Amino acid sequence: MNTFRTFSFITTAMTYLLIFVGGLVRVAGAGMGCPDWPKCFGRWIPPTSLDQLPDHIDPAKFNIVLAWIEYSNRLFGALVGLAITITVYLAIKHFNDVPRIKWTSLTAFFLTLVEGWLGSVLVDTVLNPITITLHLLLALVIVMLLLFAAQEAYYIEKQDLEKLSRYPKNVEWMFIVLAVSLLLEVVLGTEIRGGLEMIRMENPSVDSQFLLQMLGPFKYIHTLLGFFITGLSGLLWYKLVKTSMNPSQIISQSSTAILGLILIQIVMGELLVFFDLIPLIQLFHMWVASWILGLVMIQYSAWKQSQLSYE
Amino acid sequence: MNKNILTIILCIILLGVGASWVIQKANSSHDIPVIKDVPPFLFTTQNGESFSENELKEKITVLDFMFTSCAGPCPIMTNNMTHLYHDYTNVDEIQFVSITVDPKVDTEERLKQYANALGVDDDRWQFLTSDIDAIKDLKKNGFMLYADELPRGHAIKFVLIDPKGRIRKYYDGTDKASMAVLRNDLNYLVKEIRS
User: Fold this and answer.
1) Which of residues 214-273 of A touch B (CB under 8 A)?
2) pLDDT digit string (tens) for A129-146?
3) CA count, 13 A, side-chain hemisphere, A211
4) Contact across the interface for B171 and A284, Cβ inside 8 Å
5) Most buried pick, A6, A76, A253, B43, via CB within 10 A?
């Protein structure tokens, strides 16, 4: 049992790192670094010089830096896929009688297969914007499932953790609305980015301020939904931390961390709008969003645990 | 606890530093090599104006060799070129040049019709013709492209030429991914000019 917990936490951490690497591929513009899939220029190890290119591939497509950035995402992705497979194996081995752990892990596993396939579709469609968004969305769902499974296993070992805490009962809808809004916010964010790229393609050197204005309503929906998310997570913090009896450390820390991270998100978002679309900030803006989603999952899992032990 | 937070922050900083290194590497990897100068030539456009290597100066040029009655890969190439022509409407720094390899059939008049059919309504896309030997020579020796058995044996390459009239890169004009690379390179060169 302990093996599963340790392993699933490591897998979750690795998946988070993979989301970061995936975002890096995007901001570095390396998505087409390898024009084929799963191999890169027909090789399992990307070519390091022009003469290693197979004849049927145009040398103009070859950019060694971009190829390796893209390929490191694939290699690391394969590694994470392997880790998730082992996690599922351990889940079935140790928690065959705990459906919520078994099935969450299995779902994560199947979604991972879909995710790999989506990666190949991305290359086939030369980075279709909708597929890019789906690719990210699925990664977020997978990481949330893994996190949930890991935490549930943790609670099976330490059943007393939420025993003394009493949280309001009728907040389940808030978790769901919050998670859905966050996912939607990520979609809007990537749409903004995708839209910017489309406009930029036609107007290569217009400055970003102007580009953002051209995007119109998208930007405002992103901001408005951001306000909503801030309000909702503030309310949830108030309910779970302030009006509850003995909120556990997990609950109070994750609730506070969510608010802190949202503050960071607002600052980063404004930086992107008012200064320049700095790739590094874009990358962290997306990554921190994935943390917030994970924290909401942690909150939910802890809340659920206390409800169960209460019953 | 404080120690944990410190470790996390340290990891994030390390990731950030690593990421910016990678992003910077990626940006500088777009540097496009200089291959050679386009040699002097003097051809005629679809409007009967003369067009020489001097017209390649001060502009970024995407150039290909084609002929209007071609049924093989040319429609795909023309389609790709048309997309570029329309997408870069607002970018005055970029021009497109198509040179016919079948001057017997592709007269000025014919090229003009062809241009009209593609919706070319300004001088950003020029269609050139000359006598077959001059075309063959420019193609073979100037652009180092296959030029035997014209018109059928024409190459499917798009050639990127910089504002100094130098050949920078070749692209497969029938391939979608190559077009994405070409767009990247075009944007990169435009940025370079404007800055």
Assistant:
1) none
2) 889 999 999 999 999 999
3) 23
4) no
5) B43
Interface of B with A in 70-109 (CB under 8 A): 87-91
Amino acid letter at B112? K
The reported pTM is 0.77
Listed residues A107, A128, A157: the one ending a domain: A157
Q: Which of the given ranges, A281-290, B63-72, B73-82, has the highest pLDDT on average?
A: A281-290
Among A98-112, A175-189, B120-134, B144-158, name the one with the lowest average pLDDT: B144-158
Q: Does residue A148 share a domain with residue A193?
A: no
Q: Tokens 């390899």 identify what position?
A: B101
- A85 and A226 belong to one structural domain: no
Q: Chain B partners of A127 at a C-beta cutoff of 8 Å?
A: 180
- Report chain B residues whose CB lies below 8 A from the CB of A63: 29-30, 181
* Mean of pLDDT values over A238-254: 94
Query: Does the complex come out with an ipTM higher than 0.90?
Result: no
Work out how many domains chain A is built from and give that number: 2
B155's torsion region: left (phi>0), alpha (psi -120 to 50) or beta? beta
- For chain B positions 142-161, those within 8 Å of chain A (CB to CB) are none
> Does residue A113 share a domain with residue A136?
yes
- Give dist(CA B45, CA A215) in Å, integer: 39
- Of residues A64, A204, A279, nearest to B23 (C-beta): A279
At A302 the pLDDT is: 95
Instruction: Check B29 against A65: CB less than 8 A apart.
Output: yes
Q: How far apart are the first and last CA of chain A?
A: 25
Buried b (16+ CB within 10 A) or exposed e, A221-232: ebbebbeebbeb
Same domain membership, residue A301 and residue A192: yes
What is the DSSP secondary structure assignment for residue A52, as one 8-state letter?
G
Q: Is A76 on the interface with B (CB under 8 A)?
A: no
Both A216 and A309 in one domain: the answer is yes
Report pLDDT for A201: 61
Distance between B78 CA and the closest CA of chain A, angstroms: 18
Boundaries of domain holding A13: 1-157
Q: What's the distance, CA B175 to chain centroid?
A: 13
